Every structure is written in structure tokens, then in C-alpha cells.
């Protein structure tokens, strides 16, 4: 039995839902992940034009990622617990409404402070989605297909990095960054309609109180270790990745076209890494994380070594993408394996750690970029991801995927 099958919630039996509607619902949840993730990370591909248009530094523009990540991370355990009696379909449609309106406000906002405030509100919605999305997909298909449904939803990460963020960069080049967010507002509204139409009523399942959420890592040593690894890995990865465009513009004289190609290469690598990780995590979860982390460190070192050579940059970004895909899938499985009976609570803590560290990574990376140059941000990533690998290797074999 797989981990996902073991943790399949039973409040709404999948037998009551037709297979066609169930998989349409999974597709709608996957599309939701796509719009949430691309909205959160879109500024990464737009840092330079955002900073110029809003008359702020590149580091300050990176705070658009920070603001949304802080809200997503810090708010999720509370909101998930407070909404534990709310039907999950209604909750997801409300979250998508916040996203659609937030992107619209971002597109027309006259000043930078309003954009930051709006990004924080969207962050609350994004964090809750990460905590409930996979669980919802697992509940609307037959139990034997729960693992497949979870994998389909997580593929939205690769779709976002392969398609979403590069398209955002191209749209900015064609019509400006405001046009990009306006289009994403409309896309969010379309996904909202799809969710309302395709997903059946889903009463809350396995949600717990705020106190119980925060007691989990106190009682569960495996979960504590996993969360510490998530903190180090996400700080390092996103601290470096947030400033890929400025780094390439400064060191490889990269234009918009080359930056777009590099982001697509990274996304394709991530999709390949998800596939590779899917084959390895069930056999050796600990080894998958360590190998993926070492490959990520190697990719960052390679990027520093060949930063002025465009062919070398493409190779480094491809390796970085593959490594990220493996590590990402490994840490999610580690989180679920560490707390299989408290699914949403464990995912809310994972989301809190993950998104808060996206924010902190962007913030710290911005400080490095503004004061010691964008090359120092890559070194920051090397050190932090390396520490995550050392921690995982030091504690030995992690919880196995069942």
C-alpha cells in the first residue's frame, strides 16, 4: 500500500463520485496549483522590469515574493484549523476568488506599497491551498488511484515552471508586466469556475485545532527533522533562484529571450526530476533526498564556474531543475510519511515552513544582491542546501514511504 492510499480520507467515499467527474476534479485542482504557484513566483521572471517601473531596487522588487510567502507560511496553520468545518470545495473557490481579485489589483495598482499589501492577502489564500489541495484530489477518486491523483496534482509544479513563469516573462516583453498579471487574473477566474463545476461537495476531513497543529512537531521527532530540512533547502534554493535573471543579465549578458529559455530548461529539468524521484523515493527516500541535494549544490557550483558561457549556463540550469524535482518530491513524501494520520495538519506545517522560507530566501537574497552582488546569492544557496543534505545524511534513514 502506498503512503497516499494509507492516508486516503474517508469522509466522502469516492464510490459516490463518477470516475469522470473525479478526474475532472483532479484536473481542476491541478490547474489551481498552476495559477497559485505561477502567481507566487511570477516576479522572479519580472524582477528587472518591475524594479524599473516601480522605481525600486531589484532587492526591493524581490519582496513581492517575500510578502506573499510570509503570509502563506505564517497564516496557513491558523486558517486551515479555523476552517476545519468548511466544505473544501467552497473553501477552494473562495481562495481562487482572492487570487483573481489580487492579480487584478496588482495589474492596476498605482504604487508599490499597494502591490505588497495585495501580495500578502494572496499569500494567505495560497498557503491554505497547499495544505488542502492534494488531500482533496485523493478523496475524489477511487482509493486505488489516490497515489496517481496526488502525483497528477503535483505535476502542476512542473507545468508552472515549464510553461507558466516563462510565458509570464514573454507576456511582459510583449505588453508589460501589468498585462501579465491582468491575464493571470482572468485565468484564475476561469479555474474558479472549473473547480465549482467539477469538484463535488467535500466536507472537511482530518483537520485539527490550532493547538493540535503546533503540538505535532513537539511529539513527532521525524516531523521535526523533516521540517528543519525543508527550512534549509528552501532558503538555499529560492534565495538563489529568485535572482536568476539579474545574475544572468550581469554575468552572461542575457536578454529576455535567453532568460526565458533558461527558465523553460529549468522547468523541463524539474519535470524530469519529478519522474526520476517518483521511481526512487519508494525504494530509498533518504538516498533520493541526499542525491538530489548534492546534485543541486553541484549545479550551483557549475553556474558560478561557467556563468559567462551560455551553453554552460543552460547545462547548469538543467541539472538544477532535475535536482530540484527530486528533492521537492522527496521532502513532500518525507512530510507525509512522518505524520500519515494527521494529513492536513502536517501539510499545513510543511506549507508554513516552505512558504516562509521562500519569503526569507528572497529577502536574504535581496540583501546579498544589493550589498555584495548577485553572485553572492548563489553561494548562499550552496551553503544552505549543503547543510540540508548534511542534516539528512546525519540522521540516517528517514521515514519510509508505505
Outline the structure in words.
The chain is an all-alpha fold and 402 residues long. It has one domain: Up-down Bundle (Growth Hormone, Chain: A). The protein is 82% helix and 0% strand. The radius of gyration is 20 Å and the shape is globular. The N terminus and C terminus are likely disordered.
Q: What is the 3D shape? A: globular
CATH topology: Growth Hormone, Chain: A
Strand content: under 5%
Radius of gyration: 20 Å
- Average pLDDT reading: 82
What is the number of E strands? 0
- What would CATH call the architecture? Up-down Bundle
The computed structural class is mainly alpha
CATH superfamily: MFS general substrate transporter like domains
Alpha-carbon distance between the two ends: 6 Å
Uncertain segments are 1-13, 398-402
Report the top-level CATH class: Mainly Alpha
SSE pattern, N- to C-terminal? HHHHHHHHHHHHHHHH
Please describe the structure with a list of short key phrases separated by commas or semicolons:
402 residues, mainly alpha, Growth Hormone, Chain: A, globular, disordered N terminus, disordered C terminus
SSE diagram, text form:
Layout: H1 3-6, H2 19-54, H3 58-61, H4 63-82, H5 88-108, H6 112-139, H7 146-175, H8 177-198, H9 210-219, H10 221-241, H11 244-251, H12 256-280, H13 285-305, H14 310-338, H15 343-372, H16 375-395
Domain Major facilitator superfamily (MFS) profile: 24-402
Subcellular location: Cell membrane
Protein name: MFS transporter
Amino acid at each position: 500500500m502506498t503512503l497516499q492510499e494509507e492516508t486516503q480520507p474517508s469522509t466522502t467515499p469516492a464510490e459516490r463520485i463518477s470516475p469522470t467527474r473525479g478526474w475532472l476534479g483532479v484536473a481542476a485542482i491541478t490547474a489551481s496549483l498552476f495559477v497559485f504557484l505561477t502567481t507566487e513566483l511570477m516576479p522572479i521572471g519580472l524582477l528587472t522590469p518591475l524594479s524599473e517601473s516601480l522605481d525600486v531596487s531589484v532587492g526591493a522588487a524581490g519582496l513581492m515574493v517575500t510578502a506573499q510567502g510570509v503570509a502563506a507560511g505564517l497564516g496557513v496553520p491558523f486558517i486551515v484549523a479555523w476552517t476545519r468545518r468548511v466544505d473544501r470545495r467552497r473553501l477552494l473557490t473562495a481562495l481562487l476568488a482572492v487570487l483573481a481579485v489580487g492579480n487584478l489589483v496588482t495589474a492596476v495598482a498605482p504604487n508599490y506599497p499597494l502591490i505588497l499589501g495585495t501580495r500578502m492577502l494572496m499569500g494567505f489564500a495560497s498557503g491554505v491551498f497547499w495544505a488542502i489541495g492534494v488531500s482533496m484530489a485523493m478523496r475524489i477518486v477511487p482509493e486505488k488511484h489516490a497515489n496517481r491523483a496526488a502525483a497528477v496534482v503535483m505535476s502542476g509544479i512542473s507545468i508552472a515552471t515549464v510553461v507558466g513563469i516563462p510565458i509570464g516573462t514573454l507576456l511582459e516583453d510583449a505588453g508589460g508586466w501589468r498585462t501579465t498579471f491582468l491575464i493571470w487574473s482572468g485565468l484564475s477566474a476561469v479555474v474558479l469556475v472549473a473547480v465549482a463545476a467539477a469538484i463535488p461537495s467535500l466536507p472537511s476531513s482530518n483537520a485539527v485545532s490550532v493547538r493540535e497543529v503546533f503540538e505535532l512537531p513537539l511529539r513527532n521527532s521525524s516531523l521535526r527533522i523533516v521540517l528543519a530540512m525543508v527550512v534549509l533547502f528552501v532558503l538555499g534554493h529560492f534565495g538563489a533562484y529568485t535572482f536568476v535573471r539579474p545574475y544572468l543579465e550581469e554575468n552572461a549578458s542575457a536578454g529576455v529571450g535567453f532568460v526565458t529559455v533558461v527558465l523553460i530548461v529549468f522547468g523541463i529539468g524539474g519535470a524530469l526530476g519529478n519522474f526520476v524521484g517518483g521511481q526512487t523515493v519508494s525504494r530509498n527516500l533518504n538516498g533520493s533526498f541526499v542525491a538530489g541535494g548534492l546534485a543541486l549544490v553541484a549545479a550551483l557550483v557549475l553556474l558560478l564556474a561557467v556563468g559567462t558561457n551560455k551553453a554552460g549556463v543552460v547545462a547548469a540550469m538543467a541539472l538544477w531543475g532535475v535536482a530540484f524535482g527530486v528533492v521537492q518530491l522527496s521532502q513532500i513524501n518525507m512530510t507525509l510519511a512522518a505524520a500519515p494520520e494527521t494529513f492536513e495538519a502536517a501539510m499545513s506545517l510543511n506549507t508554513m515552513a516552505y512558504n516562509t522560507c521562500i519569503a526569507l530566501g528572497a529577502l536574504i537574497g535581496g540583501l546579498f544582491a544589493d550589498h555584495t552582488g548577485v553572485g553572492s546569492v548563489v553561494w548562499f544557496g550552496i551553503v544552505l542546501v549543503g547543510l540540508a543534505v548534511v542534516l539528512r545524511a546525519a540522521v540516517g534513514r528517514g521515514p519510509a514511504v508505505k
